[in-house]
């Protein structure tokens, strides 16, 4: 359910990077609002500015000019420590490369963000329970003690999603989360994001794949640091229905 509450608000957002004696303007005055409960896909070619925007929204990079408000709080006014705190409490990150620790079980990987959460840092039983619940949400209850090299690519991405969920964030930022996956596994991952969005979590997804973007509810397309297009998705793809149809076709062969 989409509400009137603004989770993300960018006002005149510009980002300039130094490149030798020259400079490169990655974002050129972006105005963007994303409301609580939305599922937004950010698209664009390499160098269009979409990843720069994602890094600023995720408090992983700073803006040059403008203002960025997260849940009504101006991030530019926060100290680095406060930005780290808001990043850990409010935002869950999912990346293309999974970013799992190779010698650590799925359960331990999911527990990692809780080490920085004062409510869990000294409560091992509570953190273990929270991690188990997050893995159950992505259908991996029977894989909790597996190492990443014992999991398929899709299962590793599910672990990464569980890790993003363990602090119960209100916002998930996913950067090309299907980029390393085959087509069917990609649809499975999008089904998870659709379910999480249906549960009220705001999802912002960076992708260069139109088919993936159409599982969202809104597409914001970037070109050369500007927003080229901002439109509702119609018709929206239903990942669960697509999986059922795909299985039916394979069953007939």
Task: State the gist of this model.
This protein is α/β, with parallel strands linked by helices. The protein has helices at residues 50-57, 80-90, 106-111, 124-137, 153-165, 183-198, 210-213, 239-252; strands at residues 6-19, 22-35, 39-43, 65-70, 73-74, 91-95, 171-175, 202-206, 218-223, 226-232. It has a domain at 6-96 and 170-252: Rossmann fold (3-Layer(aba) Sandwich), CATH 3.40.50.300.
Question: Would you mind describing this structure in some detail?
Answer:
The chain is 34% helix and 27% strand. It has a domain of 174 residues: 3-Layer(aba) Sandwich (Rossmann fold), CATH 3.40.50. The longest helix has 16 residues. The chain has 253 residues and is of the alpha/beta class. A six-stranded mixed β-sheet has the order 6-7-8-3-9-10, with helices on both faces. A four-stranded antiparallel β-sheet has the order 2-1-4-5, with helices on one face. It contains eight helices and ten strands. α4 crosses α5. The relative contact order is 0.17. A hairpin with a 2-residue loop joins β4 and β5.
């Amino acid at each position: 359910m989409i509400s009137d509450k603004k989770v993300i608000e960018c006002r005149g957002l510009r980002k300039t990077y130094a490149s030798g004696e020259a400079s490169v303007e990655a974002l050129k005055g972006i105005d963007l609002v994303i409301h609580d409960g939305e599922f937004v896909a950010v698209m664009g070619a390499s160098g269009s500015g979409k990843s720069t925007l994602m890094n600023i929204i995720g408090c992983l990079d700073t803006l040059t000019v403008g203002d960025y408000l997260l849940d009504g709080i101006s991030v530019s006014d926060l100290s680095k420590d406060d930005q780290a705190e808001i990043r850990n409490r409010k935002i869950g990150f999912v990346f293309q490369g999974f970013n799992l620790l190779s010698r650590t079980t799925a359960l331990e990987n999911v527990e990692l963000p809780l080490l920085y959460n004062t409510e869990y840092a000294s409560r091992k039983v509570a953190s273990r329970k929270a991690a188990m619940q997050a893995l159950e949400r992505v259908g991996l209850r029977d894989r909790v003690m597996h190492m990443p090299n014992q999991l398929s690519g899709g299962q590793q991405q599910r672990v990464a999603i569980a890790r993003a969920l363990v602090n119960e964030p209100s916002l998930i930022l996913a950067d090309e989360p299907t980029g390393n996956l085959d087509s069917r596994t990609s649809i499975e991952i999008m089904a998870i994001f659709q379910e999480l969005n249906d549960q009220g979590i705001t999802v912002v997804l960076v992708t260069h794949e139109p088919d993936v973007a159409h599982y969202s509810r809104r597409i914001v397309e970037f070109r050369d640091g500007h927003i080229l297009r901002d439109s509702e998705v119609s018709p929206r793809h239903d990942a669960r229905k697509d999986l059922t149809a795909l299985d039916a076709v394979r069953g007939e062969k």
